[in-house]
């Protein structure tokens, strides 16, 4: 199945036209989820940069929680969350400081 065929079928199942689907910002991308009923394509709405950054931060928090749980198995979830929150706040502080520094004048 081609991307165009998938898009037509997706629009039909949704009860709208392909033009309407595209007007909603939907795009077709390859999918390799491995599900038995997967058609090899997916219709998605591209993320805005802010959404992408939020998702990246959430993934980092999840990884940090898993890493911390592996290193400190006797630590409670609240203790781990407090430590991770501190690390994230510290990183955001320095990121803000570094981004607010003006480049030196080259005159």
Structural topology:
Layout: H1 3-14, H2 18-23, E1 27-30, E2 41-44, H3 49-71, H4 77-100
Helix pairs in contact: 3-4
Overview of this protein structure:
With 107 residues, the chain is mainly alpha-helical. It has two domains: 3-44, no CATH class; 49-100. It is 61% helix and 7% strand. The protein has four helices and two strands. It has a two-stranded antiparallel sheet with strand order 1-2. The chain is elongated, with a radius of gyration of 22 Å. The relative contact order is 0.08. The mean pLDDT is 83.
Which tags fit this structure?
107 residues; mainly alpha; 2 domains; two-stranded antiparallel ribbon; 4 helices; 7% strand
Number of structural domains: 2
Strand content: 5-15%
- The gyration radius over C-alpha positions equals 22 Å
What oligomeric state best describes the polypeptide chains here? Answer: single chain
Pick out the low-confidence regions.
Answer: none
Question: What is the average per-residue confidence, as pLDDT, rounded to a whole number?
Answer: 83
Strand line-up in the sheet with most strands? 1-2
The general outline is elongated
Specify the biggest β-sheet: 2 strands, antiparallel
The string of secondary-structure elements, in order, is: HHEEHH
Q: Distance N terminus to C terminus?
A: 59 Å
* Class from helix and strand fractions: mainly alpha
Q: Tally of extended strands?
A: 2
Helix content: 55-70%
Number of helices: 4
